[in-house]
Amino acid sequence: xxxQLCSIETTRLLRRWLPWVTASACVFxxxxxxxxxxxxxxxxxxxxxxxxxxxxxxxxTALDVAPLVSLPFLVLLAANLMGNDYTQRTNQHxxxxxxxxxxxxxxxxxxxxFTFLLQILILLAGGGVGWYYKALTFNAFSLAxxxxxxxxxxxxxxxxxSLPYLALALLIAVITRSTFAAAAIGLxxxxxxxxxxxxxxxxxxxxxxxxxxxxxxVTYLLNGIGNRxxxxxxxxxxPDAAMPVLFVYTLVFLLAAVWLYRRQDVGG
Length: 268
Description:
With 268 residues, the chain is mostly helical. The protein has one domain (2-262). It has eleven helices and no strands. It has helices at 2-14, 18-40, 42-47, 55-65, 67-87, 90-95, 100-137, 148-176, 179-200, 211-219, 239-262. Helix 5 runs antiparallel to helix 9 (179-200) and helix 8 crosses helix 9. The longest helix has 38 residues, at 100-137. The radius of gyration is 20 Å and the shape is globular.
């Protein structure tokens, strides 16, 4: 039944315009970031004053900048997918087929899968823009110094960095029983409250365990795509410590959503 619900939720998700806008916006933004880099530094790159970066730069940069756009869209997707069950009364239909937690977990699984595919799409977009400029403008395309294993790992840990926000949006939707409220509260938190907290308390030791700081820590793994070793800021947790904590945040929010959903009266 779980996989049947996943199939149903996938169909429901892809019939909406929001996931397609999300994918388009992420590809456009990551591609535009690379385009701006190559176009603004074209003279220096052509003259040799600046070294032409490798493919690893394109892949890592695309994944690094994409969360600026992908995170708010993913919050909207989660709020929309869960909140619509209340406004359209579809949760009553699912509850006649499977336990409540199965439907909610199916939604989370579908959102996770979409996020993972989104990371792959962003990787391809970054590689495509980089190839265009290096092969057709600078005639200097090369696969040298690219760590293939790091490329394969990148979509997994970048997806993990987004999971706490997906689970939190589902939790808010369950609490408020509203798509609009879940979207508004979720966006207010991720786009205002979190940024405000990280700005005010920047450098505080306890802030390294905040979800946004943990997600930032994970992005330092992107340097491995080009086999680069960089100095790690002391105000961030190490990635190998950040990833388990991100998983714990996700688990706590998801279990809270399941616990509340199983106790709600959704028959009215």
